[in-house]
């Protein structure tokens, strides 16, 4: 029973990371096109991603008009996901 619960937790965490990754990709794509920032869906995307992206904007400066921080933030998110999923996996095996 415990393994099934841990499997479910890992799946939920994995889906949450996947959804956030897609929201981040949409945010990156929005930076390349003209859009209405007051549209509710676009506001939601900005409100959800801005706190995370702000961390990387402090670390990685923009090079002229190009901002690489969202790309680095995306890859960092994937690495964090990998670590979290592995930790949950080892917890389910009783190794941590």
SS-derived structural category = mainly alpha
How many structural domains does the protein architecture include? 1
The end-to-end distance, rounded to whole angstroms, is 18 Å
**How many strands, what sense, and barrel or not for the largest sheet?**
none
In total, the number of strands is: 0
Please tally the helical runs, counting DSSP H or I stretches of 4 or more residues.
Answer: 3
Average pLDDT level: 90
Proportion of residues in helical segments: over 70%
Q: Uncertain runs with pLDDT below 50, 5 residues or more? A: none
Q: Which H/E pattern describes the elements?
A: HHH
Anisotropy-based shape: elongated
Radius of gyration: 17 Å
InterPro entries: CCB3/YggT
Family: Belongs to the YggT family.
Keywords: Membrane, Transmembrane, Transmembrane helix
GO cellular component, one term: membrane
Write up what this structure looks like.
The chain is mainly alpha-helical. The chain has one domain (2-93). Helix content is 77%, strand content 0%. It contains 3 helices and no strands. The protein has helices spanning 2-30, 40-59, 69-93. α1 (2-30) packs across α2 (40-59), α1 (2-30) runs antiparallel to α3 (69-93) and α2 crosses α3. The two termini are 18 Å apart. The mean pLDDT is 90. Keywords: Membrane, Transmembrane, Transmembrane helix. InterPro entries: CCB3/YggT. The chain crosses the membrane at residues 12-33, 71-91. It comes from Pelotomaculum propionicicum. Pfam families: CCB3_YggT.
